[in-house]
Write a structure and sequence with these properties.
2 domains, alpha/beta
């Protein structure tokens, strides 16, 4: 049970998945294949769906990619969003291809007449639109004297008003930048101004190691304040890593339960076994587990049993032997050679 009270927002439906309106925060990713290669793209989508991805976005660089979305959508196990930059005609083709959602960037999609054509087509088919503002792609002449977060919000609001003037309210908004404080400030500001669901993320976040940290700080800060309805952790890494990182952020805030939670001690001078290696082996084995379970790997008897008390399954390791726990209760003593196999057997039994 989370202690976080979420911001009230409108609910929209993307291919059967509810975003906003009090629904659970969803986890998204984006394919890193050539969208024109239908087989490769669908294979990656299925891999992501198996990892827990709930909505997938595909880049649409040209007309061939937009047309390919028809087959991709037909074969995808999860809702498909078309990511459009520069050419509004690609958005029209994607809508006709049956996509579940659309992402457009007001900084480069063109004049209002072009945006109107896209909105009217989306309205006819009830396709939600994400107004995706990126700090790095705002027109340089747009409010040059304002701080970045204000420029991002004002750019998004201008597009919101345009969509609203066309009686369109299937709107989702993102305000992404590389800078964490600017991104957080932007989301805080717009959260108080509009009722639409917010898609959280950091853009150009970096490689898996640095990008996960930057994303966790930015996304986690906002989620802890109740801001955010869906997230994508953008990484220069395989997209499955984005999905795993997204769920780890949500699990750390008790917003979602998806797959295992691993509790492991950092190791110290009291540790008489290689707890780092054991924890890594356990983490690798747990990657195939999809059900929620809390597993503890502790390095000594000083804090181990107590800190593992609320774990579903845990082990407190000592020299030559360790104690297996199940929800704080001692199960049995195992030898050092059995640490990994015995713990994983308990996970399986649980």
């Amino acid at each position: 049970m989370t202690l976080i009270k979420g911001r009230e927002s409108n609910a929209i439906t993307i291919g059967g998945v509810t975003v906003g309106g009090g629904a659970a925060v969803t986890v998204q990713s984006m394919t890193k294949t050539d969208t024109r290669d239908v087989a490769d793209t669908v294979a990656q989508i299925r891999q992501l769906a198996d990892a827990g991805c709930e909505i997938i976005r595909c880049g649409v660089p040209d007309a061939a990619a937009a047309e390919a979305l028809r087959d991709i959508k037909r074969q995808s196990p999860i809702p498909v969003i078309a990511d459009i930059h520069f050419d509004y005609r690609l958005a029209l083709t994607a809508i006709a291809a049956g996509v579940d959602g659309l992402r457009i960037n007001p900084g480069n999609i063109g004049d209002n007449d072009r945006v109107k054509q896209v909105v009217l087509a989306a309205k006819e088919r009830q396709v939600p639109i994400r107004i995706g503002v990126n700090g790095g792609s705002l027109p340089p002449e747009f409010e040059p004297d304002q701080p970045l977060h204000r420029r991002m919000v004002d750019s998004a609001l201008a597009q919101v008003r345009l969509l609203e003037s066309l009686d369109f309210d299937l709107i989702k908004i993102s305000l992404k930048a590389f800078d964490v404080p600017e991104t957080v400030a932007a989301y805080r500001l717009i959260a108080a101004l509009v009722p639409y669901p917010l898609h959280l993320g950091m853009t150009e976040a970096g490689t898996a190691r640095t990008g996960i940290i930057r994303s966790a700080v930015g996304i986690g800060t906002l989620l802890a304040e109740g801001i955010g309805d869906t997230i994508r952790v953008s990484l220069s890494a395989p997209p499955v890593e984005e999905v795993r990182a997204g769920y780890e952020i949500l699990k750390s805030l008790d917003l979602r339960q998806h797959g295992p939670v691993l509790v492991s001690c950092p190791s110290c001078g009291r540790t008489e076994v290689n707890i780092v290696s054991l924890a890594e082996q356990v983490a690798a084995a747990l990657e195939t587990v999809t059900k929620p379970i809390k597993v503890a790997v502790m390095g000594c008897a000083v804090n181990g049993p107590g800190e593992a008390a609320d774990a579903d399954v845990g082990i407190a390791c000592g020299k030559g032997q360790g104690i297996l726990f199940r929800r704080g209760e001692k199960v049995r003593v195992v030898t050092e050679a059995e640490f990994l196999s015995a713990l994983l057997k308990e996970v399986e039994n649980f």
